[in-house]
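Help needed: design a sequence for this.
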């Protein structure tokens, strides 16, 4: 196992089984061809052709699309097609400062192959004995990836918040970090990946932030999503990511990116150019245009 294995595990997909999903002339997602057959039975909501799927012509405003999708998601959940609904709405198809094309429940995003956005925060401490990084262990009762290791703070990007507002919110909920301290987090770019899952396609974008914490600060979870936190030396973090699958799959990308920027993983590493390229692969939609 190694760095490229962690990257490859985030980028396994076969688009031959999917149909593009479009809105306002833009490719914004991918639906499984089997699901497209179901969409064709809802002509009041979806238009499905041989080359692409999209919305019915009457759904010509963000509000109408959002309302139709909300009803569809409720119906799918009631019939068992969707295992759950989250109650958290994500904006799809616009820049973060622009009106979205529509809103959709977070739990159904993968079914349509829409690009979900998240924020991930590397919490670190600089001391006389070098760089240390806070890591979280996900609670055993979580519906996804229970018990796996995670970044100190991470969460999906809900509609109506800026990225930094979400960082501050998630930092408070997941790690008990006061707003004034969380607000010192520094934007460090983004990583992308595209993974095919049982639920659909994930062409996702993770906006990355670095937050230096005082040596005596102890993260404390308040929303029940984290079992506990540990402060690890950077070398231990690097070895665990490279040699194991203990971390939730997409967190590995965030950590590899952090290790590169901090010089822990450098040009002397075999496959270094491929590692760099693998953190931001070409995706089957244009997420930078959309977000």
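Sure. Designed sequence:
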């Amino acid at each position: 196992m190694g760095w490229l294995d962690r990257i490859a595990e985030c980028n396994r997909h076969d688009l031959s089984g999917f149909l593009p999903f479009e809105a306002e002339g833009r490719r914004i997602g991918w639906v499984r061809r089997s699901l497209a057959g179901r969409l064709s039975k809802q002509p009041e909501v979806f238009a499905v052709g041989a080359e692409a799927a999209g919305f019915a012509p009457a759904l010509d405003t963000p509000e109408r699309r959002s309302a139709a999708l909300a009803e569809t998601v409720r119906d799918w959940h009631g019939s068992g097609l969707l295992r759950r609904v989250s109650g958290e709405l994500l904006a799809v198809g616009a820049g973060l400062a622009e009106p979205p094309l529509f809103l959709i429940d977070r739990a159904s995003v993968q079914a349509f192959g829409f690009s979900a956005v998240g924020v991930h925060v590397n919490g670190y401490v600089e001391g006389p004995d070098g760089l240390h990084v806070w890591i979280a262990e996900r609670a055993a009762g979580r519906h996804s990836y229970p018990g796996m290791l995670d970044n100190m703070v991470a969460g999906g990007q809900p509609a109506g918040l800026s990225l930094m507002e979400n960082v501050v919110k998630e930092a408070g909920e997941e790690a008990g970090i006061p707003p004034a301290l969380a607000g010192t987090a520094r934007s460090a770019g983004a990583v992308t990946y595209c993974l095919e899952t049982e639920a659909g396609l994930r062409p996702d974008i993770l906006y990355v932030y670095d937050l230096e914490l005082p040596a005596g600060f102890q993260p404390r979870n308040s929303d029940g999503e984290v079992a506990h936190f540990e402060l690890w030396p950077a070398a231990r973090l690097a070895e665990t990511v490279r040699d194991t699958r203990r971390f939730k799959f997409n967190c590995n990308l965030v950590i590899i990116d952090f290790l590169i920027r901090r010089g822990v993983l450098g040009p002397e590493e075999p496959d270094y150019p491929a590692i760099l390229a693998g953190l931001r692969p070409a995706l089957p939609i244009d997420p930078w245009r959309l977000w």
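The longest strand covers residues 200-212.
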